[in-house]
Amino acid sequence: MGWKDAFEFCIWVCAGIITMVNFIVLFVKPVRNKVLGLKAEDDGIKCLLRSEMLKIYYANRDNKEVRQFEYENFCHLYKAYKAKGGNSFIDHIKEEMDEWEVNR
Questions:
Q1: pLDDT attached to residue 16
Q2: More confident residue, 104 or 49
Q3: Are 52 and 32 contained in the same domain?
């Protein structure tokens, strides 16, 4: 076996490894989530995050002002909600709250 054959073998091995990694990333995670019921768990977490954000929003909507700690909590909730794949419904709420006065 010459160096050309060894090099060709290494290329085939690397291509096989890359193919397996792509398979794992593209197919195993969604199947695992479905089998273990993690999608329902993620949906529940998104619902709780959205509910808490709306609670803060509706409690302060009339005055158009929010306390600093509530605004910070809202921003953390919003970041987690978007990371979980939350929809754009809450984006409009956040845009409105960004214009409110923040009290210390």
A1: 87
A2: 49
A3: no
CA-only gyration radius of the chain, Å: 24
Residues 99, 71, single domain; the answer is yes
Report d(CA 33, CA 74) in Å as an integer.
Answer: 28
On the CB side of 43, CA atoms within 13 Å amount to: 6
Q: What's the CA gap between 75 and 47, in Å, rounded?
A: 16
> Do 21 and 11 belong together in one domain?
yes
Is there a single domain that holds both residue 32 and residue 76? no
Check whether 31 has a pLDDT greater than 90. no
